[in-house]
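Possible regression after last week's pipeline update?

I re-ran a chain I had predicted before the update to compare outputs. Posting the input and the new output here so someone can diff against the archived version. Not blocking, just want to make sure nothing changed silently.
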Amino acid sequence: MKNILGIVVLGLLLSSNAFAESEKCKSLPKYSNLWYYNKCDEEKSLKSKKVKTWKNRQIPEEYHNPNLETLRYHFLSYNKRGERDKKFYTKPSSQPTALKFNLQKEPKIIKKIVKKLESTGLISYLMYEDGEIVIDQLSPPERFGDLIDNDTMIYSMSMGKSLGGYLMGHAICKGYINSLSSTLADWPIVKGTLLETATVQDLINASTGDQKYIWNNQLDSGRDIGDLTIASITKKELANTKPGKKRFNYSQFSPNVALNYISFKTGHKFNSFINDVLKDHVGLAGKLRMNGKGVESKGVIQSNFKASRYDTLRIGIAILNDWNSDTCIGNYLKDVYTNRVAKGAYNVGDGYSKSYAGFFHTNYPGISDTVMGMDGYGGVALLINFDDNRIVYTHAVHRDYNYRSLVLNAIDKGIF
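New output (post-update):
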């Protein structure tokens, strides 16, 4: 009888604790950094005793050999971010850009990719050359194939920075913004801050002189940029600030500012603008969604996005085609590349490239070709070689798949 009573009491205690945790999660903004930090996303996840978690909610780049359970859990958890944010999105194009396939890479190369798909955090691999997809590989069902297919909206944070740089070019070419040398002085939300004298060029090179107040995604107050509006940051942390030395300082803040400045210049019709660019110009087959909640004029848009693997490749193809065209956006991309800034001692981001241009990574070691790269957490990367008309796009949950070989060597020579 005592044993039964003990079990009942224990059950009540456990259910009470679970209820308390549930109530705590209810009090937090859903999908905010605090919501994830308190593991409120674990109720319907792949959590098990074999799964290792970290306080910052993601696998550290330096952690070696995570097991499959840990990789699967973090992929699903990461991909849930922004799940309910449906304010800023594009509609599918009625005439999406057609993808041509000519899968003819030699068996030795395919075998190497498949081996990594079967043993690492690599989930998807696409290579595009001279107008055709020549490699198209996806994780097998026993690893991630049951969690992703060609239509799955997959999430990336830092690749959204580069997308912001590309969107800035279209904002200039459509006449919303005068030029790269324009300042942000006409935007009331940044008045009295270091951003007031920053140029668009400073902004998209992450060189506004904000390093005294911002490091990566943290403000000097301890607040996380990912949960905040531009209005909140400029009112609190950046009020009455002056810029420091204009040098590279990688963070989510500059691309968030860039996207919200575009919103301001379009009369806060950001949805209409991104549909013009991504639906009509790029020709996305499905939706693309960006995070952001609340009143658009407060600066709520976040520099991340969700799209399918093929639509993400379509963005890369559009950038490649634009570069090769004698158009305003093609000239913008070339100007951005010409005016790139050295990362120097502050090389945060992909960890390989030596300079930064319009939120794109540039000057990769050992590569003489003109390459611009979009890069994200966990080994997500889309690199474009403008000299060889080649794109390599990988999606991964951890950079344990030999990035140097499968991405850097591949974008340089097409072999690895």
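Follow-up from reviewer: compared with the archived run. Residues 51 and 222 are 28 Å apart (CA to CA). Marking as no regression found.
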